[in-house]
Structure formats: C-alpha cells, structure tokens
Amino acid sequence: MLGWWRRRRRAKVRALPLPAAWTEILARNAPFVDRLPAAERARLEGDVQVFIAEKHFIAAGGIEITDEIRVTIAAAAARLVLHLDVDRYDDLTEIVVYPGAYKHPGAADGDGAVLGEAHSWGVVVLSWDAVLSGLRNPRDGHDTAAHEFAHVLDRADGTFDGAPELHAGDHYRPWAAVMQRGFDRLRGRDKQLRKVLREYGATNEAEFFAVATEAYFERPDDLRRRAPELFDELERFYRPRS
Q1: Fewer CB within 10 A of the terminal residue: the chain, N end or C end?
Q2: What value does the CA radius of gyration of the chain take, rounded to a whole number of Å?
Q3: Which domain holds residue 140?
Q4: Residue 241: what pLDDT?
C-alpha cells in the first residue's frame, strides 16, 4: 500500500510543469542537462521535482536555502539515477548545505576543510561552492555532489563498501574483481589510471567507487580508454539494459 501511494504521489509531482525559473537554473548550473535527449531530460526534470518535494534542505554556515540551491543539488543527484530510479535515495532525508568549505565542530586548526560528506543516518552535507564548481566544470573529473551521492547509492545496501546494490546476483563477483583491480592500480600509483581518477580514490574501496563515479560522468571517454573494464562495470550499473 505504501509503495502504491508513493508512486501515485510522485506521478502527481512529475505531472506539474517545471517552473521557468528552474529551467534557467539548470541551464546555468547543470550544463549536462542541455545535452540530454528529450526523453531523458523530461525524466530527469521529473526526478528533480520528486527529489525537492521529498528531501529536506538545511542551511548551515549562514547560507540561505534558495530554489537555485535546491534545483542544482537535485539535478546532481538525479543525474546518477537517471537510468535507475529515484527511489535509490529513499533512505536519504536531509541535505545540509554550507556556503563553502567547512570544518567539523571542535576540529583542530590543522585539520583540513571539508567539501562534502555522506552519513549513514540519511544525511548528505555539501559545500555549495564545491557543488557549483563541480557542475560548471564538467570535464575536470571533480564533482563533489556526484561523489557524495555515489556514497548514498553505495550505502543503500547497508554499508559504505564500494559496492552499491547491483542489478543481479551474478554481477557482484565481476564487480568486486574489477573494482579491486582498479583500487590496487590506483594505490600502486598507476600513471595511466591517475590521469583519470583522483588520488583520493586510493583511500579505501568506498572512496574509489565515488571517485570512479565522478570520472564516469565527467570524463567517460578517458575512463573507457584508460580503464575499460572499470568503465564497463560502471556502465552496467548506471545504465542497465532493460
């Protein structure tokens, strides 16, 4: 019953016309949207509307939550699940937004500033400056929002381990093998892979998946050329064939 009610509610949200101001925000801050085929763009816009209707945005560090912030962050999240389903974010409830890089309360002076993080209790924290920079520079391979929402997808099966909920049971073994090889290459300072994946991906398996996701969406051709098996696994996850 709950699933039926949710689908009905979401259908009503998707049926609403996208405000003209939101279209302008997408054009300004999420240039990837203009490159989508018409049907995919319509789906993404519907997912943006659903995401905004269901998630709670919380201001931090003196920022004011505006439609520009909501629409831009929702588009970044919707991009990852365009060929999946927005219900991948059902456990995500809150997005905390700072104006720029931030530090945790009580952090020592020497601790580095944070651009974003995903928590196991359904919260994502983002630096607005980092979100904008990542989306407006679509080929630099660094997209904070994509990185953190990849963590949300990873956590949906219960843990941050670099393995989101895959589409079939027989996908897990090849996924694990390919991801481990890629992780080992990055930790081993493989020059070819480091040309497309950020060094931060060598931190652990969860960060490797998130960094690889950034590359998949921002530099797919480079990723396909330098790590074809990694690209193929990400493609099978993010663009499953019906």
Answers
A1: C
A2: 18
A3: 20-155
A4: 75
